[in-house]
């Protein structure tokens, strides 16, 4: 009995159709991979472009060792606030009081240390305690009474600014002891020597690059295990190498200035800790769930009130940390300290990829958004641009970032 198989032309047609389907599927996967986090990916490109632009406009002064160090010192407290603010925004809230809390915690620390003559560390502990109390105050009204966070923190902005004036009796206090000043103005250098540079700073930079590469590789393996789309291995290697070069250049510049700033170590520890909290803990997943879909989160058994309460306690704690850093930086406490800090922190979170409606955002993205604001401010200052123009530029950048977020949501909705 003779059997006849499909004609050669039919076989080729079937193979061609299979190949075309595979190519289409592969292309769709690549397109989905590239566009899934378009805004989060684009922010890094925007950051590099802004740095390059201002480096050219300032004739390289922006990237000089001394200026890079100054950027770290001058904007570190905004970056600390941005860490807490992005978590608040992910949960679908906002906090307008952080600038006033920065002022209040710095004032309490100054009264304890400068006026009362207590040890410098007592001032730090007192500031942290005040920050926790403030956060608990906000958390109670938002989580358990049900008043919107916008109203609660707006009231807190006025309340804690007034308390700052009372604590300081409308006068400035200075100076802090040398140990307290080291929080924001201290450097670690000379630990490993170096001929004209600080080898310890380069070592820390190298460790950071290795840690980034190992963490990225482990994340990649985990996604492959769960059959999630990942970038090609060459592209992954290129990304790690690019980030490594940027970090090592940054470390090289710091090593040729004054070494590793103490405040940068504090900031790095906070970024790593909160990166783990938001991505790898139950609390972090619950924050995203609340911001993404409150009803679904409640039906899933998330204790929404408890999570919201601790979100604001955390914001109060980080506001206190920022208050300590700021008061250490200016070597004193002032009634007007922290003015408009809340807007800078909110802008950093939104520019860094947080969504207006909540449920979206990362700590690293907020850091990049804060650095974009810092580079723009520093670059325009170096160029001698008027403060009014600087405010206009910052406002336009924030508006474009939020508009881009809305555009992405509409496009995603239209494609469904």
Automatic annotation (TrEMBL):
List where in the cell it is found.
Cell membrane
Please give the NCBIfam families that the UniProt record associates with this protein. GguB
Q: Which domain of life is it from?
A: Bacteria
Q: Which UniProt keywords apply?
A: Cell inner membrane, Cell membrane, Membrane, Sugar transport, Transmembrane, Transmembrane helix, Transport
Q: How does it sit in the membrane?
A: Multi-pass membrane protein
Pfam hit, one: BPD_transp_2
- Species of origin reads Pseudonocardia zijingensis
Q: What parts of the sequence cross the membrane?
A: 43-66, 72-91, 96-114, 120-137, 142-160, 199-221, 233-252, 258-277, 307-326, 346-376
Could you tell me which InterPro entries the record lists for this protein?
ABC_transp_permease
Q: What does this protein do?
A: Part of the binding-protein-dependent transport system for D-xylose. Probably responsible for the translocation of the substrate across the membrane.
Respond yes or no to whether keyword Transport is given for this record.
yes
The record's section on CDD domains has: TM_PBP1_transp_AraH_like
Q: What protein does this entry describe?
A: Xylose transport system permease protein XylH
What gene name is given for the protein in this entry? gguB
């Amino acid at each position: 009995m003779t059997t006849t198989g499909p004609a050669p032309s039919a076989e080729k047609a079937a193979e061609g159709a299979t190949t075309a389907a595979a190519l289409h599927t592969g292309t769709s996967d690549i397109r989905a991979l590239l566009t899934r986090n378009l805004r989060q990916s684009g922010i890094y490109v925007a950051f590099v472009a802004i740095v390059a632009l201002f480096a050219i406009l300032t004739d390289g002064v922006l990237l000089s060792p001394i200026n890079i160090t100054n950027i770290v010192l001058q904007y570190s407290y905004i970056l600390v606030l941005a860490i807490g603010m992005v978590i608040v925004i992910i949960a679908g809230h906002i906090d307008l009081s952080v600038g006033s809390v920065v002022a209040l915690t710095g004032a309490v620390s100054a009264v304890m240390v400068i006026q009362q003559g207590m040890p410098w560390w007592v001032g730090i502990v007192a500031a942290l305690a005040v920050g926790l109390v403030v956060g608990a105050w906000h958390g109670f009204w938002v989580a358990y009474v049900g008043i919107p966070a916008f109203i609660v923190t707006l009231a807190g902005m006025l309340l804690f600014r007034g308390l700052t004036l009372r604590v300081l009796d409308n006068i400035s206090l200075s100076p802090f002891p040398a140990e307290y000043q080291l929080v924001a103005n201290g450097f670690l250098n000379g630990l490993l020597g170096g001929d004209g540079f600080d080898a310890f700073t380069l070592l820390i930079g190298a460790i950071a690059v290795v840690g980034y590469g190992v963490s990225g590789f482990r994340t990649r393996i985990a996604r492959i295990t769960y059959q999630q789309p990942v970038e090609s291995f060459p592209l992954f290697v290129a990304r790690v190498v690019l980030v490594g070069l940027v970090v090592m250049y940054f470390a090289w510049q710091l090593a040729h200035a004054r070494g590793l700033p103490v405040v940068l170590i504090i900031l790095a520890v906070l970024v790593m800790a909160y990166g783990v909290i938001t991505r790898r803990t139950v609390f972090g997943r619950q924050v995203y769930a609340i911001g993404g879909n409150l009803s679904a989160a409640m039906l899933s058994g998330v204790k929404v009130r408890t999570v919201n309460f601790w979100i604001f306690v955390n914001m109060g704690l980080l506001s206190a940390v920022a208050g300590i850093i700021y008061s250490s930086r200016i070597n004193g406490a002032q009634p007007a300290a922290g003015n408009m800090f809340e807007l800078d922190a909110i802008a950093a979170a939104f520019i860094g990829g947080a969504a207006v409606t909540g449920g979206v955002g990362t700590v690293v993205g907020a850091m990049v958004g804060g650095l974009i604001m810092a580079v723009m401010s520093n670059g325009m200052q170096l160029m001698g641009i008027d403060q009014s123009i600087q405010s206009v530029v910052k406002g336009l950048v924030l508006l474009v970032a939020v508009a881009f977020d809305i555009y992405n949501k509409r496009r995603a909705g239209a494609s469904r």
